[in-house]
Amino acid sequence: MSVAVLELETGRPIFAVDERIVLPTASVGKILLLVEVSARLTERRLSDFAIIDRSPEDAAADSGIWQHLQAPAMPIADLAALVGATSDNLATNVLLRQIGLDAVRSRAEQLGLVRTALLDVVRDTRGPDHAPQLSVGSAAELSWLFHALMHGQIIDRQTSDRVLNWLSLNTDLSMVASAFGHDPLAHRGVEHNTWMLNKTGSDEGVRSEAGVLRGPRAGLTYALSVQFEDRDLASRLRVMDAMRTFGLDLLEWVH
Q1: What is the dihedral of CA 6, 92, 99, 108, to 10 degrees?
Q2: pLDDT digits 0-9 by tens, 191-212
Q3: Which of 21, 145, 183, 235 is the most buried if burial means most Cβ atoms within 10 Å?
């Protein structure tokens, strides 16, 4: 387990446990792809309305809705919104084919992220020649990343705000954010004096979440990653319960 919580206003550490170790973070690493897409839109190297076709090589099961739709192509900005909203695997792979994994890695390094990386495209099966995980990260860097996004420090304010807008669509409130009491399908506004956004990642034996929570008393950014033996339902539920308990602690802090 790795945890890091920062005060939103100052960046002061509030709580940490093994915050610098590197753990698998599953789809949380897709944030780095969204940062690169947003940066290119700001630099006008891409157009929001540029249409990209999907191909059979991009196919990936599990999360996302584009695989269930008839549309053979979508604008770049819409694909980023799908990644933010449903962690869409097909949209992720199409964007990576357009952007390039090397560019995403280079951007992360420029931002000073040395323990957090998107390692590969989404694959239904990982073989010996593939990266063992979709992404890895440290809680310290992920909580800093959200702090920097909130303060407009990832490239610039326009780039940061665009990424935050995509992430605000996320429908997965099953982990830490399950404690915040928000509607998974509609939580972009302030509810009961709290506001939040997050990005989650799930894989066999992996649960990870990073995000922002603001309340009437304080605001914070957080990251929590857990790697565990996913041998039965009870094991998984213990991890999910622990993540919700952590969320309740965060909620108490901001209220």
Answers
A1: 20
A2: 999 999 999 999 999 999 999 9
A3: 145
Check whether 45 has a pLDDT greater than 90.
no
Determine the average pLDDT of the residues in 83-101: 97
Torsion of CA 59, 62, 68, 73, to 10 degrees: -40
Do strands 206-214 and 219-227 pair parallel, antiparallel, or not at all (unpaired)? antiparallel
Residue 100 region by backbone torsions, left for phi larger than 0, else alpha for psi between -120 and 50, else beta: left
Percent helix, strand, coil in the chain, to 5, is 40, 20, 40
Structure token pair of residue 50: 């540029």
Going 95 to 104 to 199 to 163, the CA torsion angle's sign is negative
Compute the distance between CA of residue 107 and CA of residue 102 in angstroms, rounded to an integer: 9
H or E element at residue 110: helix 101-110
Alpha carbon distance 210, 222 (integer Å): 5
> How far is the C-alpha of 146 from the C-alpha of 149, rounded, in Å?
5
CA 236 to chain centre: 20
Would you say residue 46 has pLDDT above 90? no
Q: Name the token pair of 63.
A: 């999360």
